[in-house]
Amino acid sequence: MQRERRGHQSTVLLAIMAVVFTLALVIYPKVGYEAGMQGLKVCWEIIIPSLLPFFIVSELLLGLGVVRGFGVLLEPLMQPLFSVPGVGAFALSMGLAAGYPMDAVITARFRQTKQCTRIEGERLLAFTNTADPLFMFGAVAVGMFKSPALGALFALAHYISSFLVGVAFKFWGRRDPDHLREVQEREVTRPKGNLFVRAYREMLAAREEDGRPFGKLLGNAVSESVQTILMISGFIVFFAVVIEILEVSGIMAVIGWPLAEMYRLLGIHTGLVQPTLAGVLELDIGSAQTAVVPAPLIQKLALVSGIIAWSGLSVHAQVASVLTHTDIRMRPYFLARFLHAALAAALTVILYGLGVGRSAQGAMASLAHHLPMMTDTSTSGFWHTFVHAMSGSLELWLGICAALFMFSVGMLLLRRIRVVAFFVRSQG
Known about the structure:
Order of helices and strands: HHHHHHHHHHHHHHHHHHHHH
Shape: globular
Number of strands: 0
Keywords: Membrane, Transmembrane, Transmembrane helix
Protein name: Sporulation integral membrane protein YlbJ
């Protein structure tokens, strides 16, 4: 009864919001049109060319059985680290290459084809939802902050925090009865023998189970990928219009008043309130607005890093739509995004304090200054120029070493946890 009452309340609230948004479009038609055109431009020039080929290739690799064979090879790595099947490495790698929501699309396909349990899908989605390096190095570092070297800072903070989220979610749902039952069934049917032989056999078995001729497989891959791209583009256009309407109508300022008071108490520049709210909705707009605010650089870097890790409600809506036909829940996904954003922002401050962003800028500038000398074909001339360009960047290497140290500590802690867990099981 209480659940039904909450459902009625949410329906009324959503209906009111839809009516208000429709009225806002009638009141501000020009604003909505221009924002929609900007969203379409982003989709046509960036989203479709960059994501569509990855979607098609991933569908082909799934249909041909390559992903399952790839998963068998990487099972010894993914299972101890993150408690997910080896096929999770494919979602991780494609997410790194294409960015979100590529990982959600692949995870949903894994769940639909029974290559992972619901709990494993939720664990996988928690740490594979990452931005692609091209976005952080190109769009954010170069396009927004005009500093290519800051891309290393964003990437280090983003991927290290993502790894830590994956380790933390290793224990998510470990006592779920359905998950345990599916894992036991999978262990019973798991083939034994040489790892490479098993990978080859699993690839052939997956191809036979699919059974579609290559022509039909390619056609289905293209049609399904285009449908997914259109869905993603629609969300981008919709949220671009929503953000612009909220800003023009003044609703964004009203919503941001409590956040402004909190920022003032914490000593954070209040000019970052608007970009924060925009970043909650859409990461590109929030990051771009943050870059132009006359606030301390470290605050802007931390906020942008958190926004990228959070990824915005626009991406969350895309992920939710992709997961519609699965039983994977969104609650752990949201928890992971909060944790990822907090860790990424904190690591950005730490790494920048170690000199990663600052010294990297000096190194890049020195390399650019000595670039004509790099054309010297003699070995001594090249190395003299390289060493001179990289001198004075000790803080950069200290930052990288610190990141590697944190990774090593995480691996040692994970190993200790595994040993303790094995001891407890053996005693039980």
